[in-house]
Amino acid sequence: MNLLLLKLTLIPSVIAFVTLAIRKWGNKLGGLIGSMPWVAGPILLFFIFEQGKAFGIQAIQGTMTGILALISFCLSYSIFSQKLTWGPTLLLSYVIYTATAVVINYLQLNLLLSYALVMGSVLLALRFFPIPTGQPASSRRLPFDIPIRMVVATLFVLVITGLASVLGPNWSGILTPFPILTSILAIFSHSLQGSNATITTLRGLVLGLLGFTTFLVLQAYLLPSFSIVVSFGVAFVVNTIINLVASRVG
């Protein structure tokens, strides 16, 4: 299949699935589902198809930096959402995301150290996540909200993969977990259901990063020796198992 056609069909389908999952199973489980490698996985796959397997493997280290920045985004958005509307909350969270990414990238950590730092940061962030006060407001839906989400996410993937050769593997990796899907989930839950729904969704997403991060680290070790199908398949199963366990204890 043509890669452009794959991008234009796969990503919108993923966004629609995650949105419908949240509506069916609630914000916490929806956040866990949203943390699966629905967007970052295909982006890594497109890196490999378009730039080569070595490029994709090198990008994983940068992606770890992006995940640390994503954790800071989720925590800060949850905190600010209690007092602010979605506009200033999003802007402040993006600033914190960017600052975190720049600092972590400057440290030039190796993959295993980055992995340990991400896992520790997830647990620490969950410890300090705000506690929802009361129940989420009754759900409202904007007309055409799913198509809007689909278009925004697809444009992001097209831009990141299109600029990969210019950005190089490190910055391409850093931008891979950029909170585009997370922002969509946060904005819609914040504006339509209130801060409590947003906190619950983002907490579920951060909890799911335990599995998502493991998925990426496994790619660094599996891709050099196995096919893409085997590497992604094994890592996806491990990711799912971790998320199932996390949903029980988190």
UniProtKB/TrEMBL annotation:
Keywords: Membrane, Transmembrane, Transmembrane helix. It comes from the Bacteria. The chain crosses the membrane at residues 6-22, 29-49, 55-77, 89-106, 112-129, 150-168, 174-192, 204-222, 228-246. The keyword Aminoacyl-tRNA synthetase does not apply. The keyword Membrane applies. This is DUF3147 family protein. It comes from Spirosoma telluris.
